[in-house]
């Protein structure tokens, strides 16, 4: 396989105040692993988004120490032994930031992902798959069709955005010219950024078709994303 492998591991740990913490870890190992670091996604209902991001950052720090040697087992053992310390350190940092920002949220905030797909041969199945991923990962936004242009705009927690990208790149979502199931190899990440105050927050995930470029442009303007449109969409028409 040209995209490596992806797998999930769940660990239940008794950590803070004897509360069970269920860590959900997703590892994507690229084909040249372990010479290349794995992509790691961390989720837990018992931890805040900021704490999950801190756990991920610490795991990546440890991964760098094991570059060029198999590391996943060592990373699992390390986080089992050090989760309590990571969480306490994260809580201290959060308190300091909160004091500085006078109560402003220290969560990672809502992120936005803007993708371009080259084509969809099995369109109906592909669209259903994207809708399911968006629903499962609590992502909102729009899947847009305008002529041959296919765009996906997503908003949500950064870790869920990252996980969506892993699914998009590693799952068999389409069919090739012979009708055989295949992975998405012609996807472009146009932009990945934090949602700003001027950006509209999407409440649902929709699939829309536009007959003209003007219609598509108005969609972006309404969402406060005029700059995003002008920077990335016109070049796709060339």
UniProtKB/TrEMBL annotation:
This is RWD domain-containing protein 3. PROSITE patterns: RWD. The keyword Protein biosynthesis does not apply. Keywords: Cytoplasm, Nucleus. InterPro entries: Prp3_C, RWD_dom, RWDD3, UBQ-conjugating_enzyme/RWD. GO terms for biological process: positive regulation of hypoxia-inducible factor-1alpha signaling pathway; positive regulation of protein sumoylation. Pfam families: Prp3_C, RWD. The gene is Rwdd3. CDD domains: RWD_RWDD3, RWDD3_C. Residues 1-86 form the RWD domain. The keyword Cell wall biogenesis/degradation does not apply. GO terms for cellular component: cytoplasm; nucleus. SMART domains: RWD.
């Amino acid at each position: 396989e040209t995209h490596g492998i992806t797998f999930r591991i769940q660990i239940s740990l008794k950590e803070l105040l004897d509360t069970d913490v269920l860590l959900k870890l997703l590892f994507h190992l690229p084909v040249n692993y372990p010479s290349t670091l794995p992509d790691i996604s961390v989720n837990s209902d018992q931890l805040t988004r900021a704490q999950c991001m801190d756990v991920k950052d610490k795991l990546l720090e440890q991964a760098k120490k094991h570059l060029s040697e198999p590391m996943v087992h060592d990373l699992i053992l390390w986080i089992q032994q050090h989760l309590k310390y990571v969480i306490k350190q994260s809580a201290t940092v959060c308190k300091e930031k909160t004091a500085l920002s006078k109560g402003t949220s220290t969560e990672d905030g809502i992120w936005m992902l803007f993708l371009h797909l080259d084509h969809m041969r099995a369109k109906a199945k592909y669209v259903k798959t994207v809708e399911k991923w968006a629903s499962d990962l609590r992502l909102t936004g729009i899947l847009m069709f305008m002529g041959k242009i296919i765009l996906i705009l997503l908003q949500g927690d950064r870790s869920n955005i990252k996980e969506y990208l892993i699914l998009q790149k590693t799952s068999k979502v389409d069919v090739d010219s012979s009708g055989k199931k295949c992975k998405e190899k012609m996807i472009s990440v146009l932009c990945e950024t934090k949602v700003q105050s001027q950006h509209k927050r999407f409440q649902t995930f929709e699939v829309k078709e536009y007959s003209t470029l003007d219609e598509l442009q108005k969609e972006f303007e309404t969402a406060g994303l005029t700059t995003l449109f002008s920077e990335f969409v016109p070049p796709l028409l060339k």
